[in-house]
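User: Can you write out an input/output pair for a complex, sequences first and structure second?

Assistant: Here is one pair. Inputs:
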Amino acid sequence: MTTLDEKFRALEADNAPGQEVRQETSNLNKIMRGEKYTGIPVDFSHGDVDAFPPTPGSSEAWKNGFDKGGQQAYTEYRGAAQIRESLAERLGTFTGSPISADRELIITPGTQGALFLALGATVTTGTKVAVVEPDYFANRKLVKFFGGEIVPIPLHYQGTPSENGPDLNRIEDAFKSGTKVLVFSTPNNPTGLVYSSNSIAEISTLAATHNVTLIVDQLYSRMLYSGEVYTHLRACDIQPENIITIMGPSKTESLSGFRLGTAFGTARLIERMERLQAIVTLRAAGYNQAVLDTWFQEPAGWMQKRIREHEAIRDELLKIFRAADFWTATPQAGSYLFPQLPPLDVGSNTFVRLLRRQAGVTVTPGTEFAPGYNDSIRLNFSQDHAAAVAAAVRIVKMVGVYRK
Amino acid sequence: MTTLDEKFRALEADNAPGQEVRQETSNLNKIMRGEKYTGIPVDFSHGDVDAFPPTPGSSEAWKNGFDKGGQQAYTEYRGAAQIRESLAERLGTFTGSPISADRELIITPGTQGALFLALGATVTTGTKVAVVEPDYFANRKLVKFFGGEIVPIPLHYQGTPSENGPDLNRIEDAFKSGTKVLVFSTPNNPTGLVYSSNSIAEISTLAATHNVTLIVDQLYSRMLYSGEVYTHLRACDIQPENIITIMGPSKTESLSGFRLGTAFGTARLIERMERLQAIVTLRAAGYNQAVLDTWFQEPAGWMQKRIREHEAIRDELLKIFRAADFWTATPQAGSYLFPQLPPLDVGSNTFVRLLRRQAGVTVTPGTEFAPGYNDSIRLNFSQDHAAAVAAAVRIVKMVGVYRK
């Protein structure tokens, strides 16, 4: 049996995005080579909502919620019925399959909240859970926290488009040998890979055959770059009985400060998630829920412009990293880059800390996304364009200095 | 081993406050005696933030947070350092013992969030947890969810002041026989009983002797009625090593729509709670955290007036219920009443549903707070004074109609 100490060691969060401020970095002075670099500090651990501000009208929508008073402060645990009603319609249209607002949708405190509830509703001691590697760092932690057993599924992302994707054979093997749940993100965090329609159809069919629950995190599916195609799992012809899709407005829409997410799918699982939410946080903050009224209803052209601006940053950072010979996949969607660095004289966690201290650049170590990714770093490039470019140049310079 | 089905059956939330809207009530028509009553519907399942609105300046404080942008959207998981800094000072003063803002305080999504994290940080499969009965309904559900074993501690609340309080002998027995955690609320939810200084000192000393973790929910400790004295556990001379105090501005201050809570105490446990928060919701909504700047800094006289107005409602409802011979303890603090009803012809859950359908009055069944409390109902009387009084009269009338 896992003790609480072991349980919480597995939840170690010192290198998690946003927590860098708690790290002890004074001991880095001894190994720092050269002086500190000048330049605007850039925190690539998350998007910069000052550079890409929240959806227009979001604070007014919040105020409308506040002014509604009690009915908005105390919603059902799964969220205000009226908001779910219109949201279900828009999310159903976007994902290609209708959603019952009453039974198949829950509003959560961020998509982190949705993931927690979804895994809490499906994983208990001994449950085998297939987890893609690399993928969002909390997936593995959540499975461990609920006592599940991780069955790793490699994601190929360094090949040609036709070679790339999750290892479907490994998924089938896992499903055949007692795996009950598969959790994955598409677009993938940290690589920006979008699962092909073939991969998605295969996963759906395999899950239907072997009665596996699918939890798909589509957080970044709206920020799709030129020429890319997105396939929604819930629009597949063959569907497993249990499927939960997770989306939220924290990234592309920069509404992270509101902590809003949604999960939709199998009614029985949504029901469980609501019961769990009742003891976790009761509900997403009532007034904040009103901000969901802006979601998928942004001003005309706003989303297109936002995507275009991100694509321009993506392209310039790719150029910089590739010129320095960092192998880097082209993100098809979302604002993550996952460059692979050449061998360094210092360990990867140390390099990441040096980067922060010496170059004013915060990134997330690859090891947060799967064991073994010591040589990669993740950047959320939803940043001020010029500052991001200058920071990428500093990363390249730092690698030059600490290279083996 | 508990299956997921069993696990979620234990989390059944149909009778939980706020969820009544999801209940099927059409089958009540057959057993309804007489017509529906007229009168303003009153939902005693939670406070009415329209009758007692949020702290003045709360929406402006929120807007200040929003206008701060990225730094307020993405705080450390335990909450924005600057907000914790000033809050720690005010909470330390209120509770009679200093708090380190850096190591001993976490901001959570409501006090529900704080309770979840505190129990998650201390309870795992097989942990024996002493739970007071009756007490806040989520305590028992949380212990079960984390795989703990409930050791019930009776709370005496129907005697004289000197007889009332938790059964200290039972607490000592529990501590002697391997109980690792005690969780309780003071003022007690649902009875409004405030633990005496003697009870608090005894609990603290016993926990220190037997190395038991104390989790105390002081959510309502600011709304203290005339002549009552409140004792803060964390101000005791003899302290156990592990102690967490939970407070938040959702009740007395009517800030529930912001989902804000705090937990403070043992640094090692706060650290664990933060790690857990990282996979549960990341953080309390960033912009909302800014509203904590209004807490314990309300305009002069505002809190006194609020307490006075609640005391007036309390006194009038007590008069109504006592005139009808419903045994009802006098709440010493907080806005809960827990009247005991005479024997009825219908089951307690049915009566509660009839009350909602026929009389427009929503209350929470006593069985939510401990097994066996079929004859009691809980009312949150933080309501419009006149509407609450009229609704209490309807409750008495309904009891007359359905009496055995």
